[in-house]
Amino acid sequence: MSVVSSVCVTVPATTANLGPGFDCIGAALTLYNELKFIREEVNPNKKLVITVTGSESAKVATDESNLVYQAFVKFFQHIEQTPPPVKIEIKLGVPLARGLGSSATAIVGGLIGANVLAGEVLTPTQVMELAIIMEGHPDNVVPALLGGCRLAATSDTGWEICDIPWCSDVVPVLAIPDFELSTSEARQVLPTQVSRGDAIFNTAHLGLLLRGLETGNQNWLRAALQDKLHQPYRKTLINNYDAINAAALSVGAYGMVISGAGPTLLALTNTANSQAVAAAMAHEWENQGIKAQVQTLQIDNQGARSVVQG
User: 6-164+299-308, which class in CATH?
Assistant: First the structure.
């Protein structure tokens, strides 16, 4: 088997939770990070070179603390091999610390790049399990790897991954503000216990969400996007949340949720109303003096992909 010297990995952004699906459901979006891994044959004594391009490149570490490289190293530790010297070229397209799975793209990309350079010694399922261990929960890394909308649940033997059909007329509209919110900060505001009533509420609404996404039933989606486990607490970290929600609903959104840990806000609507929803959300951010990049995206059904270049 010939040795692969270079591989380019493209990984989609993700939106997780989708309201009641806290820490178990996520969907891949048509927004990407691109990672290129090149064996450092010219100077094998220099084990790592990282270059980063994109609007937030200055925020990304270029030493061994880089999350892409940590995943790369984790892979080789897992297969009990020494990581080869490598040059990693990162092209950013997914905003950092905005609730769009930027860390998942780094983990998934690093693991896939390492797997290809190692001769694909792990199966996609094994790569996924390693990614979940690194991330700590499956809701972002699973759709980033596999694409589509995915529900993850534990079983006696590991993880069960269920694909969730997504109606083509259910359109995700994302309002991405120009400030960050860390996952750890967003978790700190959550209660350590919830009531039985709130648990039942979320169970019912998650079931309704799955059917609503599959069918595009507007009434089901309007009800299903409600949540009592995390959003009532996390929305206090996002200025003008209620006003943005009201604006989106007034022009045809089925509902609005916090994407991942935030601060990006995700509205679901139909094709006919998507531009009006995007404009309304952007306008409300502007009322707070906050610039926001509002995008109407689609669901990426392919997930992470790699192209061997040498």
Answer: alpha beta
Query: pLDDT at position 169, please?
Result: 96
Q: What is the SS3 assignment for 293? A: strand
What confidence tens digit (pLDDT) does each residue in 145-178 have?
A: 999 999 999 989 889 999 999 999 999 999 999 8
Whether residue 172 is preceded by a cis peptide bond, meaning omega within 30 degrees of 0, is no
As its CATH architecture, domain 171-296 has 2-Layer Sandwich (3.30)
CATH topology agreement for domains 6-164+299-308 and 171-296: no
- Cα of first residue to Cα of last residue in the chain, in angstroms, is 13
Q: How far is CA 99 from CA 84, 117, 140, 199, 280, in A?
A: 32, 30, 10, 23, 20
Pull the structure tokens for residue 167: 């109606």
91-94 long-range Cβ contacts below 8 angstroms, 24+ apart: 91/33, 91/34, 91/35, 91/36, 91/53, 91/54, 92/33, 92/52, 92/53, 92/54, 92/55, 92/56, 92/57, 92/60, 93/13, 93/31, 93/32, 93/33, 93/34, 93/54, 94/13, 94/31, 94/32, 94/33
Contact criterion met (CB below 8 Å) for 39 and 168: no
Map out the domains of the chain as residue ranges.
Answer: 6-164+299-308, 171-296
Say if CB 186 and CB 62 are below 8 A apart.
no
What pLDDT does 182 receive?
78
Task: Report pLDDT for 187.
Answer: 86
**Under DSSP, is residue 14 helix (H, G, I), strand (E, B) or coil?**
strand
Tens digits of per-residue pLDDT, 73-109?
999 999 999 999 999 999 999 999 899 999 999 999 9
Would the pTM of this model clear 0.90, i.e. be above it?
yes
Which parts of the chain have pLDDT scores under 70? 1-2, 42-45, 310
Measure the CA–CA gap between 284 and 181, rounded to whole angstroms. 19
